[in-house]
Structures are given as structure tokens and as C-alpha cells.
């Protein structure tokens, strides 16, 4: 019999396993607690914070897709960061993170640093010398690639090598790619973290997170710690996220088609000062992305030549795209990082990271490609002072 491929195994997680009624879709287990046969004789599940069958199906699917030993499903993407900080960083330890990481990650690490829990070093991962110099005494390196919102690409293989040589562990935030476009463990990462809120669930109706661990022994400890810290996800959220994950492959393919249409509409428009998308040959990380990813993703950002006033004109009356945080859902979204996702960063940190007031980040959804392209062309015309609502 032919062995099933990774996607098929993950996509079918739990299907047809119901022993009560032979339901095709595994039922959701909402019970907070489980009957013991006798004192000390648990069925394998005792209390839902510690273990839940619905959550375990999602964990299995994620571990399969990322090629890890196991996954721990937690309440949010930031809970996944918290879990890894607690797992890897002793009090007074050092975390090295990209200077242009997700604003919430920056705020979390900065909070711990301000309170003296750890030292957070935010550096440019695209500068190998600066990166290597930052590793002294580090226990955790957090790489987010492509980065949010500028889509910079980090060489995971090179970063893993330097991280391990310095005695630290590499965590890759794979939220932007999903395991279908990038598998950081294959490239040397020790842990993968996800905000499953994004592509994994894909329907913008669950906030969730996960940590996938390469090593089986460590994986057990990470799962134990998530229970100890009270970070694990609820059954409903796990159920919905697994339902969303079952269509991930189909969604990623259509996201890619639509993103090309949006990029084509934006490229070369005079209102655009810079277009950041790793699929463009002009993107500094294009070759690396082509090597380490199996697609360029559906996030892009547009730096408008006219700064914030142009961004406001662009957004006024924008069709199809909603102005909202988050990304990776079926619906197209646009955000203004300086006042939204990255408002938690200090203005100085934003300036260092290159996040200006004219920058807009787009998450291209699954609407008809021609409607998305038309909306962007109209908005760019407005940004430039052309078109109906400009005057
Ligand atoms: N990592 C990245 C790259 C993100 O974009 C986000 C959220 O936007 C997070 C982590 C945090 O995830 P959550 O919002 O699910 O806590």
C-alpha cells in the first residue's frame, strides 16, 4: 500500500476515528474532566487544561506538517512565545530577536527586559556580523521569516548554524508561511511557533497558537510546561482551528494566484515608493526565499511615496480590503503598521526597523483576483491625488 503523504495525513487528522457513532468528523470533546476507573487509574485524559482529545488532533496535524516530534497547542501566538521564553530562557538570560519582528513579540520581550527578567537584543538578522556578535550569552534566538511587515527574509540555515555554535536554541516564527510554504525544522530550527490565528485557522474567527518541537524529549517538557503555566488552548478553538487547517493547502494555492494579481496592479504605479514582496526579483531576499520557501506567500507591503497623507487617501473608500489587524484569513485585509500592529513598538524602534508612516501591509484573501487588483489600482490612483475621491 502506498504511504500517505504529509499533507494527506495532517488533513485527515482524526477523520473516521469516532468509536461511539462512527462519525466521519471527530466529535468535539468539551468536558473539562474525565472519569478515573479507580484512584490513580486515568483513561489518559484527566483534566482538560492538561490534555484534551480535540486539542490533541490539532497538535498531531501540526507536528506532522512541520516535521516535528510533537506540537503543543496554546491559547494565542503570544502564549507560544511566552511558553518558549519560559522553556528556554533562565532568569537573566538573553533572547536575540529581529529588530523588525511582530510588534506584540517586541512588546512582550521588552516587557520582560524592562522588569529585569531577561535581556532582549533586537538586531538585524540580515547582517551576519551583527547577528553573530549579538549571540554572546544567548539562550534563545527568535527568527521571524518573512518578517512583519517588511517581508525581510532570514537565512534559517545560516542562523541555525551560528545559533547552535553559540550554544543557543533557534525558534522560528512560521506564521507568515505556514508549514506548507516553509519547514524551519528541516532547515535547522529547534522549535517552530505559530500564531494559528492566521493561515492555519484561516477564517479569522479563532485566536490561537502552537509550538512545534523537533526533539521528542523536549517536546514532552514543553507540553508539561504549557499545562503548568495554564497556556493551553480550549476545545472549541482547537476544533475550529483543525476545521480551518483541513483547507489550508487549497487556500494557500488561491492566495498565491490572487497575490500575483495584486502585485501586478501595484508594481510600477507612481504612488508606490517601494513594494515589498519576496516574489519580486528586485526584493533583496528573493533568491533566498526561492530556496528556503516553496512559495512567496500572500503578504506584501506598499510604501507610499506621499507618506501618511497618501496612506489616508489610499484607505479612504478602499473597496474589498478591510482596514484591520491580523492576516492570513480568507478575507483581504490591510493594515497601517505604524498605528496598528506595530504601535506597541517605540517610534525609535520603528524607525530602526524601517516602518514608516506611509507603509501599508496587505494580506491578500480569496476574493476574485480582478476585484482585488481593481481595488488596489483605484486606491493607488487616489493616493497619488488622481481619481474621484482625491479632491
Ligand atoms: N507572530 C506573528 C508573526 C504575528 O503576526 C502575530 C500576530 O499578529 C503573533 C506572532 C502573535 O499571535 P497572536 O495574535 O495569535 O497572539
Automatic annotation (TrEMBL):
Keyword set includes Transferase: yes
Protein's GO biological process: cysteine biosynthetic process via cystathionine; transsulfuration
Positions carrying N6-(pyridoxal phosphate)lysine: 198
Catalysed conversion reaction: L-methionine + H2O = methanethiol + 2-oxobutanoate + NH4(+); L-homocysteine + H2O = 2-oxobutanoate + hydrogen sulfide + NH4(+) + H(+)
EC number(s) from the headed UniProt entry: 4.4.1.2
CC annotations in GO: cytoplasm
Pfam families: Cys_Met_Meta_PP
Keywords: Pyridoxal phosphate, Transferase
CDD domains (alphabetical): CGS_like
Cofactor annotation: pyridoxal 5'-phosphate
SUPFAM superfamilies: PLP-dependent transferases (SSF53383)
Designated name of the protein: homocysteine desulfhydrase
Organism: Arachnia propionica
Lineage start: Bacteria, Bacillati, Actinomycetota, Actinomycetes, Propionibacteriales
Amino acid at each position: 500500500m502506498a504511504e500517505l503523504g504529509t499533507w494527506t495525513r495532517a488533513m485527515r487528522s482524526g477523520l473516521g476515528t469516532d468509536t461511539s457513532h462512527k462519525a466521519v468528523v471527530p466529535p468535539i470533546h468539551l468536558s473539562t474532566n474525565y472519569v478515573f476507573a479507580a484512584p490513580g487509574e486515568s483513561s489518559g485524559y484527566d483534566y482538560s487544561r492538561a490534555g484534551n482529545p480535540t486539542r490533541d488532533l490539532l497538535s498531531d496535524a501540526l507536528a506532522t506538517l512541520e516535521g516535528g516530534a510533537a506540537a503543543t497547542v496554546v491559547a494565542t501566538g503570544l502564549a507560544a512565545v511566552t511558553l518558549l521564553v519560559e522553556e528556554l530562557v533562565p532568569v537573566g538570560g538573553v533572547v536575540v530577536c529581529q529588530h523588525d519582528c511582530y510588534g506584540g513579540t517586541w512588546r512582550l520581550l521588552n516587557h520582560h527586559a524592562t522588569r529585569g527578567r531577561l535581556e532582549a537584543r533586537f538586531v538585524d538578522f540580515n547582517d551576519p556580523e551583527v547577528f553573530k556578535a549579538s549571540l554572546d550569552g544567548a539562550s534563545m534566538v527568535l527568527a521571524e521569516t518573512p518578517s512583519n511587515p517588511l517581508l525581510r527574509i532570514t537565512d534559517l540555515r545560516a542562523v541555525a548554524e551560528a545559533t547552535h555554535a553559540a550554544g543557543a536554541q533557534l525558534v522560528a516564527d512560521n506564521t507568515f508561511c505556514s508549514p506548507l510554504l516553509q519547514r524551519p525544522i528541516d532547515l535547522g530550527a529547534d522549535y517552530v511557533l505559530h500564531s494559528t490565528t492566521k493561515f492555519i485557522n484561516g477564517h479569522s474567527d479563532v485566536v490561537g497558537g502552537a509550538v512545534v518541537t523537533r526533539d521528542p524529549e523536549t517536546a514532552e517538557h514543553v507540553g508539561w510546561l504549557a499545562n503548568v503555566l495554564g497556556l493551553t488552548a480550549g476545545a472549541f478553538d482547537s476544533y475550529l482551528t483543525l476545521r480551518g487547517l483541513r483547507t489550508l493547502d487549497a487556500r494557500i494555492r488561491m492566495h498565491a494566484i490572487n497575490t500575483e494579481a495584486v502585485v501586478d496592479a501595484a508594481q510600477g504605479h507612481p504612488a508606490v515608493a517601494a513594494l515589498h514582496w519576496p516574489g519580486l526579483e528586485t526584493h533583496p531576499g528573493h533568491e533566498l526565499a526561492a530556496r528556503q520557501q516553496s512559495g512567496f506567500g500572500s503578504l506584501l507591503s506598499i510604501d507610499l511615496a506621499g507618506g501618511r497623507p497618501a496612506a489616508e487617501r489610499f484607505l479612504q473608500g478602499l473597496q474589498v480590503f478591510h482596514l484591520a489587524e491580523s492576516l492570513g484569513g480568507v478575507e483581504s485585509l490591510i493594515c497601517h503598521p505604524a498605528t496598528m500592529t506595530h504601535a506597541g513598538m517605540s517610534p525609535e524602534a520603528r524607525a530602526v526597523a524601517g516602518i514608516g508612516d506611509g507603509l501599508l501591509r496587505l494580506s491578500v484573501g480569496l476574493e476574485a483576483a480582478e476585484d482585488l487588483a481593481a481595488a488596489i489600482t483605484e486606491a493607488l490612483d487616489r493616493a497619488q491625488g488622481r481619481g474621484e475621491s482625491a479632491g
